[in-house]
Write a structure and sequence with these properties.
With 721 residues, the chain is of the alpha+beta class. It contains 13 helices and 39 strands. InterPro entries: Aldolase_TIM (IPR013785), Alpga-gal_N_sf (IPR038417), Alpha-glycosidase_related (IPR050985), GH (IPR017853), Glyco_hydro_36 (IPR002252), Glyco_hydro_36_C (IPR031705), Glyco_hydro_36_N (IPR031704), Glyco_hydro_b (IPR013780).
Length: 721
């Protein structure tokens, strides 16, 4: 619901409100974001002037869009350069419009429009000629508000945007903490939390993709905020390229700015032209980080994912990926043996990973030549797919569409399609270059190849990988003054190719990947309902990785596989139950050589596959409650997924959280795990026919059985009697 007067605009969701108001001098102020207010609440702007000198006001007032060079000395959201060389902007209110639904962003992903969505457009103008439409879309039931900005040159001469943020939020002076998800390859999205210091703290990427180091989502909270109590504000960027998130603390308060990274971003607008910034999504919770996460999860599942994959009750295939079983060393006979063993484990889908295309025996060649290597697959993909299908399995495939090998037919035919700076030695990373997807003809060329592959046989799944950062970003077809557009146009090209894939093949299960989890963001989730969470499938590591990821993203989008021990990435050994706990609360698949498994071991795997099928709707669509958060070493964690009505729940306890050596429970000879999300007045029964009252489970908790050895684990399913 959006309630407007001439100068006050209040956005209401079911549990939250956001307000902006026009000051007497025309400046648009941010006045409130928090717990739901009355519908007709008046302006909450501070009636006191911040300083006796009006010239100081821009630096002290909480602005809804901050300019630069006009006395607001905090980090700006916008930096325009006008034709006379000046870089200054001070925005004042012009008019506002409320519309049902939500306009599509040109070439960009976004949380989808539909019933229950309204959009407020607030138009601001600068004396130099730049007009900005601040666009707020309200998802009332989901407690979600999305924001973007459309920058239009209303002047008579060209101007250039050097920074064009999607979101800027000012907070009154407060002691806030910043939560970020940081890491590296095989250790992505490790949660870090620290008090905001005076000055600017930032995360971002100049890699061309969000990268392993930081995720494009952050939260602000108070020091006493925990999983169940306290204020939490969450912000996620719906974008898959370079980004910058800045949090500044100064005497005027705190400011959060989110948008495309200004590094090598220079977008020139001729008179009348516009630039649309990517979308940012935000939620608020007064019930701690857990409720903040659940609101993001619901919005992602119901408003962001591709429509075909939004029904959490619809089954998802249980897959096996060939990578850790075969790497590059395979032929058709070996693949079929793995497929036969997979069928014995009751797996649905066989995915052929890297190495299937012509001449590809290691990382040194062939990227860009998307045709089967007939030395490995004598009858090509159609022949293999037919044989896989006859075994009762569907088939999927790995591709890396943005990459090109120097040793490839495509590079020999089109060397100018790869990024490279004239006069510099081409830079190989992983023995490959990156295609210039800012060029429509390059996107069209790769689409032609992928479309031919998908038409050649009935593939049900495609894993889209991207294994290197962008470097030497230069387009051979753009003039010098437009090279600052290439990074963003590259991302638009990636989105265009994924749009073509998903529109022509809406039932194709597309899973994004980028050297593991280097492009795990809301932009990708608009096209693919799941993203490979990390190349590290070790259960201990996944406790930490998936815990951090869950702060913003639901388990149904986290690519997670059961793999062998010792783990190929870490060498750790974990129990079958621990590895299953991590995989079952993601997308659930396998990545190991099942031809080495005995009949008894395969039967054990079948029991977990059957359990996943029986409870898949709960695992994909249930409400997450983090019960015991993992330490940095992943030595234990506990979590649960409950139905929204409390009718059922799945509970997982791993490592120290099972043995009771976590927190204060370590002092208890009979440790228990206190649950959440259940009906206190109901009775519940587990699969061993034990019964519990809801009140018991929510207060004294579930008695833990203990456990010994390398990462013990236990899984419970509880059903209301």
């Amino acid at each position: 619901m959006i309630v407007c007067t001439e100068t006050v605009f209040t956005l209401h969701t079911t549990h939250t409100s956001y307000q902006l108001a026009v000051a007497p001098n025309g400046m648009v102020l941010h006045t409130y974001y928090g717990t739901r207010l009355p519908e007709d609440v008046p302006s909450l702007a501070d009636a006191r002037m911040p300083h006796s000198d009006p010239g100081c006001w821009p630096d002290l007032l909480p602005q809804e869009l901050s300019g630069c060079g006009t006395a607001d000395n905090r980090t700006p959201a916008v930096i325009p350069e006008y034709a006379d060389g000046t870089e200054a902007a001070a925005f004042v209110f012009d008019h506002a419009v409320v519309t049902p639904g939500k306009p599509q962003l040109p070439g960009l992903p976004m949380f989808r429009t539909g019933e229950g969505v309204e959009t407020l457009s607030v138009f601001l103008k600068d004396a130099g000629g730049l007009v900005v439409e601040l666009r707020y879309s309200v998802y009332e039931a989901e407690d979600l508000i999305t924001r973007t900005a459309v920058y239009t040159n209303a002047g008579t001469q060209s101007l250039t945007l050097h920074k064009a943020a999607s979101l800027s939020v000012d907070f009154a002076p407060d002691a806030l903490e910043l939560i970020t998800l940081n890491g590296t390859w095989a250790a992505e999205r490790t949660l870090e939390r620290a008090a905001l210091r005076c000055g600017i703290q930032s995360i971002g990427s100049m890699r061309g993709v969000p990268g392993h180091a930081h995720n494009p989502a952050v939260a602000l909270c108070h020091a006493d905020t925990n999983e169940t109590t306290g204020d939490a504000w969450g912000f996620a960027f719906v974008y898959s390229g370079n980004y910058l998130i800045e949090a500044e603390r100064c005497d005027a308060g705190e400011r959060l700015v989110m948008g495309i990274h200004p590094y090598h971003f220079h977008w020139t607008l001729a008179p009348g032209e516009s630039f649309t910034a990517p979308e940012a999504a935000m939620v608020y919770s007064d019930k701690g980080l857990g409720e903040m996460s659940r609101r993001f999860h619901t919005a992602i599942r119901t408003r962001l994912l591709p429509p075909h994959w939004q029904d959490m009750a619809a089954p998802r295939p249980v897959l096996i990926n060939s990578w850790e079983a075969c790497y590059f060393d395979f032929d058709e006979e070996k693949l079929l043996a793995l497929a036969q063993a997979s069928k014995k484990a009751d797996i649905d889908l066989f995915v052929l990973d890297d190495g299937w295309f012509k001449g590809r025996n290691d990382t040194s060649s062939s990227l860009g030549d998307w045709a089967a290597d007939t030395r490995k697959l004598p009858q090509g993909l159609p022949g293999l797919c037919k044989k896989i299908n006859l075994l009762g399995l569907d088939m999927g495939l790995w591709v890396e569409p943005e990459a090109i090998s120097p040793d490839s037919d495509l590079y020999r035919a089109h060397p100018d399609w790869a990024f490279g700076i004239p006069g510099r030695e081409p830079l190989e990373i992983r023995q490959q270059y990156t295609l210039d997807f800012s060029r429509p003809e390059v996107v069209a060329g790769i689409w032609q190849q992928l479309d031919a592959v998908l038409q050649s046989c009935p593939l049900k799944y495609l894993k889209w990988d991207m294994n290197r950062s962008l470097a030497q970003v230069y387009s051979a077809v753009l003039p010098a003054k437009r090279q600052g557009e290439v990074y963003h146009r590259y991302v638009l090209g990636v989105y265009e190719l994924q749009r073509r894939l998903t529109e022509k093949y809406p039932h194709l299960l597309l899973e994004n990947c980028a050297g593991g989890g280097a492009r795990f963001d809301c932009g990708m989730l608009y096209y693919s309902p799941q993203i490979w969470c990390s190349d590290n499938t070790d259960a201990r590591s996944r406790l930490v990785i998936q815990y951090g990821t869950s702060l913003f993203y639901p388990g149904c989008v986290m690519g997670a596989h059961f793999s062998t021990v010792p783990n190929h990435c870490t060498g750790h050994i974990s129990t079958v139950e621990a590895r299953m706990a991590a995989a079952l609360t993601g997308t659930f698949g396998f990545e190991l050589d099942l031809t080495k498994y005995t009949e008894e071991e395969l039967a054990q795997l079948r029991s977990f596959v059957a359990w996943y099928r029986a409870h898949g709707a709960l695992l994909r669509g249930g409400e997450l409650h983090r019960l015991v958060n993992p330490d940095a070493n992943g030595l234990g964690a506990a979590w649960m997924l409950s139905a929204k009505d409390g009718s059922e729940a799945a509970v997982f306890a791993v490592g120290d959280a099972l043995t009771g050596s976590h927190g204060t429970a370590s002092l208890n000879a009979r440790p228990r795990l206190v649950l959440a999300g259940l009906d206190p007045a109901a009775q519940y029964r587990d699969e061993e026919n034990n019964t519990y009252t809801g009140a018991q489970l929510l207060t004294t908790g579930l008695e833990l059985p203990g456990g010994y050895g390398q990462m013990p684990a236990k899984i419970w399913y509880l059903k209301k009697v």
